[in-house]
Design a protein that fits this description.
Blueprint (H helix, E strand, L loop, with lengths): L3 E4 L2 E3 L5 E7 L7 E8 L6 E7 L3 E4 L7 E6 L4 E6 L8 E9 L5 E3 L3 E5 L2
Parallel strand pairs: 2-11
Antiparallel strand pairs: 1-3, 3-8, 4-5, 4-9, 5-6, 7-8, 9-10, 9-11
């Protein structure tokens, strides 16, 4: 059982920055693909960024060049640095861990990000 706890959401003005963190229950990054997903009101949940083996990253086209995903093995955390935020980035952001062998996945409870002036 993997437990994930997100933090760092909030209200920010357009053009601003936020950093989301996801604390995992143990050092799991070697065997899990970690990801950040988001779900806006009335829309389906979508992938934002993923990282595998601590360094192989992928980003949604909408966030490339603005968001950066990273892991801190010492702290068992995966972070999402979000810069140049836009109103369309407003959503609940979820942390996800997917076992690279079994494909079994786990979700955090989500954290709200609101980009508004």
């Amino acid at each position: 059982q993997v437990q994930l706890v997100e933090s760092g959401g909030g209200l920010v003005q357009p053009g601003g920055s936020l950093r989301l963190s996801c604390a995992a229950s143990g050092n799991i990054f070697r065997f899990y693909r970690m990801g950040w997903y988001r779900q806006a009101p009335g829309k389906q949940r979508e992938v934002v960024a993923t990282i595998t083996s601590g360094s192989n990253t992928n980003y949604a086209d909408s966030v490339k060049g603005r968001f950066t995903i990273s892991v801190d093995n010492a702290k068992n955390t995966v972070s999402l640095q979000m810069n140049s935020l836009k109103p369309e980035d407003t959503a609940i952001y979820y942390c996800n861990a997917e076992n690279i062998f079994t494909r079994l996945g786990y979700w955090g409870q989500g954290t709200q990000v609101t980009v508004s002036s």
